[in-house]
Design brief:
The protein has five helices and 31 strands. With 499 residues, the protein is mainly β.
């Protein structure tokens, strides 16, 4: 099988309201929840096109555990001790020739990608099998045009704000601690966490999915001196009593600096459309009219990477937030008649670009995404939700300074990949060489957090009912997830146990 050749000296870098609280994880676009049937073939709508010349308070609403052990299958939260086969990919280093005046481009990273059948091997439960990452490739669209379009949108709206402005307007209060139901599951862990207000905890047409935070966003782990979380929710119109338009994805900005006094606010992700003076925006939906599932998110610098299930990533800009001027009609979105509406949300975050699977890439689903700053190079870690054992984890090189994925000849190749050997993966991350996988419905309704290395045994940790994406808070060595089900929703972090 061909192997990934790592270029050691040079890699080419890519250029460059609040409505009532409620949510669920069941979309035809992304099967990223335990109560969602697996679907295939869904595609997102194309990225906005066209040339663009750059121009430079909603109401407040209220919103059984077991130790970490190795074990046989069965009871919630125990660990299955099974030997894992496979070893690290062999890599070779190619040094590009240079002369006194010119440096030629580096050799192609992946000269002979494997056949797609070679990265769809038969899986063995609880065994992590490494695969050739060259089978998977992404390419960026025109980010310069996307940024110009976002700037034109902010100029037209005339209401650009900063993240500090939004942090000064957090209008909802979280509830410290976990519910008794989820706390009993996690009782043998030194957990921390919180719940949403009553409205957000019970709403059944908004579902929390992705989780990230200031530890991803900044090297020092803080944004504006605060510990912050971001949680994505997708709008499940199938749960609405009428037939409303899909409102895409909302984002909860949560200040967890003081876990006894949690405050947060929802913002809406939006897609700029049109050109120049006619630029406008719509919700983060797919071409089928459903909300983008947003099964995983990563906040890196000012960029927010959002998993786009069948395609790759949509990228939003947290430094280009703008404020709406009207917030009383949840069916309205866009600029019209002198009003700026975003389905009743006060703040909106615009898209600036996308990374999509290339025509030559093997198929891959993007059900979750997390950041590993400890890897060399740092990587975005994606995972596939499958009801069987065929879900794969892929790792994509990212430059922390530019906050862009690392390209070679215009293409982003996965640094490596793995057949996870676990079903219903809702989130995955690697940290200090260990693979962590958040899986739902592993022991009755309970989730499990699997930890693994190639050539080693899978280990299992008790995890909540309805776990989703993963996020590592590095300075506290906590690993977080958000639970999705109405009236069972918690956001919980436990100490990382390594391997």
């Amino acid at each position: 099988m061909p192997r990934l050749a790592v270029v050691s000296l040079a890699l080419l870098l890519a250029a460059c309201s609040d409505d009532p609280a409620t949510s669920t994880d069941a979309s035809v676009t992304d099967p990223g929840t335990s109560n969602t049937p697996q679907t295939t073939g869904a595609t997102d709508d194309p990225a906005p096109t066209g040339t663009t010349t750059s121009t430079a308070g909603d109401p407040t609403t209220t919103g059984p555990g077991d130790p970490v052990t190795t074990a046989t299958t069965g009871d919630p939260g125990t660990t299955d001790d099974l030997v894992t086969t496979g070893g690290p990919l062999t890599s070779t280093t190619t040094t590009a020739a240079t002369d006194a005046t010119t440096e030629p481009p580096p050799e192609p990273i992946c000269t002979d990608p494997p056949a797609c059948g070679d990265v769809e091997a038969t899986a063995t439960e609880h065994q992590l099998e490494l695969l050739d990452g060259c089978a998977f490739a992404l390419e960026p669209n025109d980010f310069a045009a996307g940024i110009a379009r976002a700037d034109a949108l902010l100029a037209r709206a005339g209401t650009a704000v900063t993240i500090d402005d939004v942090l000064g307007q957090l209008n909802r209060e979280g509830v410290p601690g976990l519910s008794a139901y989820q706390a009993d599951r996690m009782k043998n862990h030194d957990y921390t966490g919180f719940r949403w207000n009553d409205g957000d905890g019970a709403v059944d047409y908004w579902y929390p999915q992705g989780i990230t935070g200031s530890s991803d966003a900044r090297a020092d782990g803080k944004v504006s001196g605060k510990r912050l979380l971001l949680v994505s929710w997708y709008h499940n119109i199938d749960r609405e009593p009428a037939d409303p338009p899909a409102r895409g994805v909302r984002l909860s900005l949560v200040d967890i600096t003081d876990l006894d006094a949690i405050r947060y606010r929802h913002l809406l992700l939006v897609t700029p459309t049109g050109d120049g003076p006619d630029v406008n925006f719509t919700a983060a939906n797919t071409s089928s009219g459903d909300a983008l599932h947003a099964g995983g998110i990563v906040w890196l610098g000012d960029r927010l990477y959002v998993a786009s299930t069948s395609v790759g990533f949509r990228v939003y800009d947290m430094s280009r937030i703008f404020e709406t001027t009207a917030s009383d009609d949840d069916t309205k979105i866009g600029i019209s008649g002198g009003e700026v509406n975003a389905h009743t949300y006060r703040y909106a975050v615009p898209e600036i670009g996308r990374y999509s699977l290339t025509d030559e890439s093997c198929p891959l689903r993007f059900s979750a995404v997390a950041l590993d700053r400890s890897a060399d190079p740092p990587v975005l870690v994606t995972a596939e939700y499958m009801t069987d054992l065929t879900g794969r984890v892929a790792r994509w090189p990212v430059d922390l300074d530019s906050t862009e994925l690392v390209t070679n000849g215009g293409t982003v190749f996965a640094r490596d990949a793995a057949l996870a050997g676990q079903s219903r993966i809702q989130g995955a991350v690697t940290y200090e060489g260990v693979y962590y996988m958040s899986c739902s419905s592993q022991a009755s309704q309970w989730g499990r957090l699997y930890r693994n290395l190639p050539d080693s045994m899978s280990e299992i940790t008790a995890w909540p009912d309805g776990p989703e994406d993963l996020y590592v808070e590095r300075d506290l060595k906590l690993i977080w997830t958000a639970a999705e089900h109405p009236n069972k929703r918690v956001n919980v972090g436990i100490p990382m146990q390594g391997y």
